[in-house]
């Protein structure tokens, strides 16, 4: 943004004033094409802002557009680029340009969402119940890595019924309850309603909310066999029904050679569309793993500011670290101090003779509260239980 | 606008000046995002000082709800009033109830106070800490600037207050709320502007000290730190050194006062490993 400050302070005229609104609306359209979510109301605000400023003045156009059309830090970079291209002149060049997000697909209503707490062995679609139930039982303990295509299809349906919610914690908010402390507001109301007759006191108690759950899914090459299933698991987990009135969203990140936040992509209700969106957003499928560095990125950008604070953080990875294990150990210690609980789910843990010898895994283990398996449906069920705070590994 | 803000000791760049101007003209809230310590919150106080209006602050936290942000009834006084009425032998229940929910038993919390005070600056601090429901509630309030108290009716602000919202980006704030606002991203200032800020805020500090401290902080920001220091830390550091009677910094003094800039053990260790004397020499020369 330093480069643009220079450009903006120059008081040059932005072309001959032909049809100013048309030019500006065209600019907004160019912005939308670049991926900035500049809807009609924002454009209106932009035009309104220019009304009170000088539309012929370059810096005024620049700043009023930037203030009204952008909605996040990621937008600013695109804005600078489009502004420079559209009005010409020296805006910041040579910055890392990010491609516009792919157009969003709209899905017809295919399923009304998984039942909140449906049993995994529930019946779905047209598959005869008995057949599915029995094969599901077998599937539950199979390793994802060794599944056939047909089994994978079935597994997808089973995973869709997953719910993941964090351990409950008490909040500062008070809710009406049977037990607790006297609620003066409701008691006075009740007394007034009865015209001053004494009434049993109304009570209130602290509300409970699930803790936020943060999933860090490893999508590097060594996890290729599991990434799809784990992301579907994450998708189902992110769609868990809200509990107790409060809505603690599950946040999902992918890690590989880069850290990508995919929570937004996973909001599609349909798992296939959601996964397609994730695939488009994640640039580093099957690359190497730099766990330590990415974990630091996560903590710097999100975790320390509050996302990991008091949350249940689940790392789904085989712990195969290509970078410096010492860095990973340091970052895991940091994460451990921030989070309420750190859970590491490792798909390779179930293999006979497994020992956490991979350098990364060994470095991370001292800062992990629960070390669980993550290779099969049964293991993920267990993981969900551990996240809920029931039973420990 | 710019001069008025700068007169209060708060230095603004082009973008922020335009933002403040538009906020006043269009009556739109300013949505401020950026790292901690870059002056988001102090913008609101500078704004208030520039307009010569009171600053009303609402600190958000998880679980905040309308009764904590908007208004509440003063129950102890209501009960007392009931008792007094009883003792005086008042039997007219309707009148009594009407009295109970009158304006004098209403406790105005920040948002209601902001609507009732003209003019004023309303600071909604760290909106990202509140929950979604509160955001939705705030959205409604900020678009209409009216509040409905069921027992009293609708209260309307004659002229809407100037609103500053800040966020530390711990989570994404809902787009609907952002759309109502002017969006401004706060960057760390460059050397010249940061130096000007330090000089303005701490006129008693020697020019040399201010320059050195600013240079050091700018250098530290390029290092790979857990928490890069903000402008607030620069001011703290200069103030701390000034309190020690220093007129200029050497490496030894810098290290012994690093605690006012860096708040993580890892960062401190890292900074101690740096050649501070060399960094000082670069700027000092």
UniProtKB/TrEMBL annotation, chain B:
GO MF entry, a single one: ATP hydrolysis activity
InterPro entries registered for this protein in UniProt: AAA+_ATPase, ATPase_dyneun-rel_AAA, CbbQ/NirQ/NorQ/GpvN, P-loop_NTPase
Span of domain AAA+ ATPase: 26-201
Protein name listed in UniProt: MoxR family ATPase
Organism annotation: Streptomyces liliifuscus
């Amino acid at each position: 943004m330093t480069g643009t400050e220079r450009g903006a302070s120059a008081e040059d005229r932005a072309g001959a004033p032909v049809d100013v609104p048309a030019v500006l609306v065209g600019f907004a359209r160019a912005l939308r094409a670049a991926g900035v979510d500049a809807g009609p109301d924002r454009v209106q605000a932009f035009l309104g802002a220019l009304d009170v400023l000088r539309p012929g003045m370059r810096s005024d156009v620049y700043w009023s557009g930037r203030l009204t059309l952008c909605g996040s830090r990621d937008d600013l970079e695109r804005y600078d680029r489009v502004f420079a291209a559209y009005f010409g002149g020296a805006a910041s060049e040579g910055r890392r340009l990010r491609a516009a997000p792919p157009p969003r697909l709209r899905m017809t209503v295919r399923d009304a969402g998984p039942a909140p707490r449906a049993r995994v062995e529930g019946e779905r679609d047209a598959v005869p119940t008995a057949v599915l139930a029995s094969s599901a039982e077998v599937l539950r303990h199979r390793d994802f890595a060794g599944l056939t295509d047909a089994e994978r299809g079935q597994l997808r349906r089973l995973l869709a019924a997953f719910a993941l919610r964090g351990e409950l914690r008490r909040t500062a908010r008070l809710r009406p309850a049977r037990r607790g402390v006297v609620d003066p507001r409701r008691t006075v109301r009740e007394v007034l309603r009865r015209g001053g007759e004494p009434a049993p006191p109304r009570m209130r108690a602290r509300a409970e909310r699930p803790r936020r759950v943060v999933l860090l899914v490893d999508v590097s090459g060594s996890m290729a066999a599991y990434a799809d299933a784990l992301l579907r698991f994450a998708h189902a987990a992110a769609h868990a029904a809200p509990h107790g009135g409060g809505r603690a969203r599950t946040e999902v990140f992918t890690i590989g050679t880069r850290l990508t936040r995919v929570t937004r992509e996973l909001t599609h209700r349909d798992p296939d569309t959601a996964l397609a969106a994730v695939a488009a957003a994640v640039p580093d499928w099957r690359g190497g793993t730099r766990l330590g560095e990415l974990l630091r990125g996560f903590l710097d950008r999100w975790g320390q500011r509050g996302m990991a604070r008091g949350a249940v953080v689940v790392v789904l990875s085989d712990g195969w670290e290509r970078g410096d294990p010492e860095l990973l150990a340091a970052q895991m210690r940091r994460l451990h101090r921030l989070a309420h609980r750190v859970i590491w789910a490792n798909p390779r843990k179930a293999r006979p003779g497994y020992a956490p010898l991979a350098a990364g895994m060994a470095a991370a283990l001292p800062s992990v509260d629960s070390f669980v398996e993550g290779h099969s449906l049964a293991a993920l069920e267990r993981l969900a239980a551990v996240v809920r705070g029931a039973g420990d590994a | 606008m710019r001069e008025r803000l700068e007169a209060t000791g708060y230095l603004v760049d082009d973008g922020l000046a335009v933002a403040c101007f538009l906020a006043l003209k269009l009556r739109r809230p300013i949505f401020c995002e950026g790292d901690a310590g870059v002056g988001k919150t102090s913008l609101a106080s500078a704004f208030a000082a520039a307009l010569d209006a009171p600053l009303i602050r609402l600190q958000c936290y998880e679980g905040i709800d309308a009764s904590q942000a908007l208004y509440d009834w003063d129950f102890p006084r209501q009960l007392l009033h009931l008792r007094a009425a009883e003792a005086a032998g008042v039997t007219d229940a309707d009148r009594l109830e009407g009295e109970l929910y009158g304006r004098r038993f209403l406790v105005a919390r920040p948002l209601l106070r902001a609507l009732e005070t003209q003019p004023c600056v309303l600071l909604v601090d760290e909106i990202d800490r509140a929950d979604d429901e509160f955001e939705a509630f705030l959205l409604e309030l900020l678009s209409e600037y009216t509040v409905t108290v069921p027992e009293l009716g609708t209260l309307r602000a004659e002229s809407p207050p100037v609103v500053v919202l800040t966020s530390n980006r711990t989570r994404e704030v809902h787009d609907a709320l952002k759309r109502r606002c002017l969006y401004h991203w706060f960057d760390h200032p460059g050397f010249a502007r940061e130096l000007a800020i330090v000089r303005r805020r701490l006129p008693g500090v020697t020019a040399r000290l201010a320059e050195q401290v600013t240079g050091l902080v700018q250098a530290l920001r390029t290092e790979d730190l857990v928490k890069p220091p903000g402008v607030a830390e620069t001011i703290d550091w200069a103030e701390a050194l000034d309190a020690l009677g220093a007129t200029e910094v050497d490496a030894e003094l810098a290290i012994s006062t690093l605690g006012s800039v860096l708040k993580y053990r890892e960062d401190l260790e890292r900074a101690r490993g740096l050649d501070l004397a060399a960094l000082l020499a670069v700027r000092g020369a």
